[in-house]
Amino acid sequence: MQEAMIKRAKELLADGSVDRVIGWKRGEFAYDMTPAVFTSAEELDSEFIFDDFTSANVSKYLVKETAKEGKILAFLKPCDTYSFNQLIKEHRIDRDKVYVIGIPGGPKLDIEKIKAKGITGILSVKNEDYTLKIETLYGEETMPFSEAILDKCASCKSKKHVVYDELIGEDGDVLDSNRFDMVEKLENMTAQERFDFWRDQLSKCIRCNACRNVCPACTCENCVFDNPKSGIDNKAPADSFEENMFHIIRAFHVAGRCTDCGECSRVCPQHIPLHLLNRKFIKDINELYGEYQAGADTTSRAPLNTYTKDDCEPSIVHERGVE
Amino acid sequence: MQVNENFEPVIVAFCCNWCSYAGADLSGTNRLNYPSNVKIIRVPCSCRVNPMFILRAFQKGADGVIICGCHPGDCHYTSGNYFTRRRITLLYSMLDFLGIERNRTRLEWVSAAEGAKFAATMEQFTADVKALGPNRRLEDLRCRKQ
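ok -> structure tokens follow
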């Protein structure tokens, strides 16, 4: 797959139809794949990587990239195409400046799950017939592929590319995922249990803003959370649940626009399941205002941008779930 | 839960300029009583209430937040309160999901002619919040006045 992608990218660069290519390259470690922009065939040959760790969604980078001159080639996985579509809908990306090649999606690997097995000093990870051969400083280890896949891939919602100019590999279908299972489980807990769960989780937050910075729906130039007059700016939390406002509002700001790409949870250094907040909004929207998948098209109105005269009242919260 | 008789909650009421604020005015001119715990913030439309306002109120020590607007269909700006309704439903559902007490938040439609309803609603809401006790779950100690 990597060779086919490099070959096609080189062709497009050579005939001048694109000026830059956005893909992934290796970071500090063999499992640290980071989005990168390539401008020459040599760079592509030496640095371009597409493997089990290239899970980063490159859609958001296109906001800045399409503001520049020239055309860019983007390799998008199915989940990334939803984010891409959503950004087109919000007029954040200039579609004419992007040439999209759809590539097959995951499942991708989560290095944290490998590390959780007590495997340290990892030098390289190879996937041989769905068994991972992990070379470490202390010898070789193996583990099944299925035990190390990213949470977001484990509950994959779609293998279908919703937008592309050409495809490498096969296009898939929208899947029946089990992505709301955990939300449902939480809804069936008592209020005290839910509060305890979230206090446990959100008290880990260090406000590194990684979730915000990676989120393809969070593309504001000036973020409301960067307000130095908020009274909480640059102050460490004094209690354990104080970053709740940041997470509630961040989830709310992307409600109806979140495509559920799962990047927020993937990048969280504290492993907070942030996608559950987004999924709660998605689930509520689906139940109360009809099924809606953000990014599935570029024309429909977002659920919070429209209304009907017989919408439910907020008191419906008292009738649903467990108190 | 044990009710502390001496606890006086701080209630923040966001009232739309055209209906609910006038409703509050009417309850005043009619000499109806409603609890002094209620601090009214006038907004041009209930739709002006950013979810952040609500959480900010809680963060800064409010014990309950109520939003009042025109009845659906009667909005001065035609459709503002329909958007409010969707937004606030989702927000309240999210607060419930995080285990925040349901009775701390409310949305009520109060027209300019419903002075009595305004007073009764505030009376009831204050009693509900009083029964819940102080807001500890959404308070932010960093915002507390020194």
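Residues 80-97 of chain B form the longest helix (18 residues).
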